[in-house]
Amino acid sequence: MHSGxxxxxxPLVGGAPEPTINELSKPGRRASRFPKLDVPVTEINNxxxxxxxxxxxxxxxxxxxxxYSRLAHRNFAVDLGFYPLGSCTMKYNPRFADYVAxxxxxxxxxPSAPSEFTQGNLEVLHELExxxxxxxxxxxxxxxxxxxxxxxxTGLLIIKKYLEENGLSNKKDIIVPDSAHxxxxxxxxxxxxxxxxVSTDIxxxxxxxxxxxxxxxxxxxxxxxxxxxGGLFEENIMEISNIIHxxxxxxxYDGANLNAIVGVCRPGDMGFDxxxxxxxxxxxxxxxxxxxGSGPVAVKGFLxxxxxxxxxxxxxxxxxxxxxxxxxxxxxxYHGNFLVxxxxxxxxxxxxxxxxxxxxxxxxxxxxxxxxxxxxxxxxAYNEPCMHEFVATVKDLKKSHKIKxxxxxxxxxxxxxxxxxxxxxxxxxEALMFxxxxxxxxxxxxxxxxxxxxxxxxxxxEDVSLESYPKNLxxxxxxxxxxxxxxxxxxxxxxxxxxxE
Amino acid sequence: xxxxxxxxxxxxMFEELSISSLEELFTHIPETxxxxxxxxxxxxxxxxxxISHFESVESRNMQNLICFAGGGHYDVYLPHTVKTLTMRPxxxxxxxxxxxxxxxxxxxxxxxxxxxxxxxxxMELANASLYDGATxxxxxxxxxxxxxxxDGVVVSNGFNPNTKEVVNTLVxxxxxxxxxxxxxxxxxxxxxxFSDNDAAFVVSMPHYEGSAQDLTSIVQNAKxxxxxxxxxxxxxxxxxLKTPGSMGFDxxxxxxxxxxxxxSFGGPTVGWFATKKELARLVPGRIIGESRDSNHTxxxxxxxxxxxxxxxxEKASSNICTNQTLNAVGSTIHxxxxxxxxxxxxxxxxxxxxxxxxxxxxxxxxTISNLNNSLREFIVKTSRPSEEVILDMGLxxxxxxxxxxxxxxxxxxxxxxxxxxxxxxxxxxxxxxxx
Lengths: 501, 435
Description:
Structural class of chain A: alpha/beta
Shape of chain B: globular
Oligomer: heterodimer
CATH architecture of the largest domain in chain A: 3-Layer(aba) Sandwich
Number of strands of chain A: 12
Strand order of the largest sheet of chain B: 2-8-7-6-5-3-4
Number of helices of chain A: 16
Order of helices and strands of chain A: HHHHHEHEHEHEHEEHEEEHEHHEEHHH
Largest interface: A-B, 191 and 201 residues
Helix content of chain A: 25-40%
Shape of chain A: globular
Strand content of chain A: 5-15%
Helix content of chain B: 25-40%
CATH class of the largest domain in chain B: Alpha Beta
Strand order of the largest sheet of chain A: 1-7-6-5-4-2-3
Order of helices and strands of chain B: HHEHHHEHEHEEHEEEEEHHEHEEEH
CATH architecture of the largest domain in chain B: 3-Layer(aba) Sandwich
Distance between the termini of chain A: 48 Å
CATH superfamily of the largest domain in chain B: Type I PLP-dependent aspartate aminotransferase-like (Major domain)
Number of domains of chain B: 2
CATH superfamily of the largest domain in chain A: Type I PLP-dependent aspartate aminotransferase-like (Major domain)
């Protein structure tokens, strides 16, 4: 073990569960202090004013700091260990980007401030747009979508509006692979489209014959990641995009897997008309426990006027806001997740041509290496060269020893590794999806494979209770039925349940 | 950059894969698609070089503007304790807590976040965050439509115009009829008649214009017609205003920026969403529940997962996946830092200072359009075009507010503003508006 894997996820503060901030509350304690009111007091008469104080916990500042620091010690993170969570691109997040995002007027500009006051912010968005359209092979971009799913919805609404403007409102079908992320069909449905599923062939790629039978005059478009969710490059991508274009549809690139191809090839050259990128994945901004992200949408020139507005324009070294003439409307209250976009720009500037040209190559190298050494322990789902991630399966172990993907994931937690993504894509039985990213060392990759081997051997032993894993963490496997059935979602709910049952 | 491999590492990896160059990884990609000369982007910068680059870009923003703009985003004091705790790397560099056993930190904080919001708004169930205030309004309307199966949406006109634009984008207007109801004297009309085709009633408290009213009887009328009632609140005023729950609302949404996030040019912030348990299965986004593990130890988990896109696909309650968790962490820690007295003080001081500012503006010859019912935010009339006034006030060091109409500016006062700042704002406005 070279990478420190074993130490990383063990809680520094173990023992009893941490009380809630509410349980730490005592009447009269407080952390906050404000300056004395420096204007004369006026009597306020308004029917909306309340007579009592709000219901909040009362804690001292030190108690508050200890509480949230102890909770931090009960959380795994990229800064602590290997996070090979497939499809999520959990790469190293440069600290320097956080420094830039904390600079005064970046962090503290009011979003309604006129563009004359915020030229620096607009320059950030403009420069990032230039990077992004070059990397994806597109022409224009919007930064309003605050996450990938919002980017998908933006793209679909652009398709819808474009078809309407061209008298093609009959086109209502969006084709989505059966291996797609759940957000694809959910977004298509939100945009008012019918979802049509195309199957995957035996090699793990879009089934072209099936695609041909599904495409007709009602086809509005296709949503696709490339590489796909199985980690494979869709080799027939040009044929796929041609089939859709010949039928008057548009082709949408789900940028979830963009990390695999940065500097290698570009969605814009593969026939994609619309691309969303996940800046929090490919461009290394911190995932923040589940967000914030940023899901900018880039389009080919003929779709520019459909983008959500306003977008940034540059004229004579002055930046201004421009609202496209057929804009689908706003996707966010203001300009999207600006500070996330800024961090992504910092990352791109640090990498520059030298780093970006090789980004995809190193991401693929790490995944290909890891897949090679892991394939000696458990079989891979497809016998094809993987890109930035790959899927392995324990379906045989399930038959022989009742060991499920879930059990392998849980046992890995004990050893200091985050679990890979499990049970995705849905079309692969007992799937374990690994995405190492380019920032992990070969030692760490070796350690993961070695650990996986130890675990698989251990789980096959006699008298092993699979349910007992993980064993060394602050809590064991949770009962997932209680909160779903009894809605214990607010403090006091669980105690109430225990009293009544 | 950030790739750790040495020549020795590469040799080992290449040997394992029987390759001799990185290009050999891509023999299966059609040649015509490959970028032969790489990307046309600038050369790499060291961290040291980047500092001066970004500091000079930052310096092109106007510096040190004293903020009198609001409209949903407020210059509330954000304590260092809150900032530094929120930015702990264990929170910042983790992802969605899919693996509960190693994610109890984020899970418990989100559970506290949900509970704090319920307590503050008198609701029963909150989700673990949406993108921002504007998108939260649209998500709430979608819940009401799914619940009632009706096609009318009644929205108060007293909203930030951007919020209305987001609603217009996200609610399909070919299927649903959005009726914007004008405020009368800056208040929602008490006698508004709801129809039994209406799915949702959405109103802001305070209204965008800064005026506030007790909405109890309007909510009663809406509910009598079977309408789902949605209240958009300003979190930094919740310490002093009646709770949406006490007025009978079914759903509460908010732009949560003022609790735990810097202004951030509008993002990332956080959308709050809370409701009653009877609507639980229609709620968008993640929800954290309290449970026990096999040893009966308290354990938090993501729950009601069958609503979400990764399980339910096209039948999901929303497409949201990545949300605004870190900003929700900020809200949790900020609210805990404030406590009841602190949140009260933020609201109270803002209203008192706004009240002083309005009196002074009147004494200096200005007119306030909504003097009577406005609280911390109000509309001041200008003789010159409001846009020009705002630009000229910038040269005096003030973000004067948001353009409300050709000759009106929406001005917001937070607890951070001082008497001196208010007095010099008014002197500057006199100079600028009479120029």
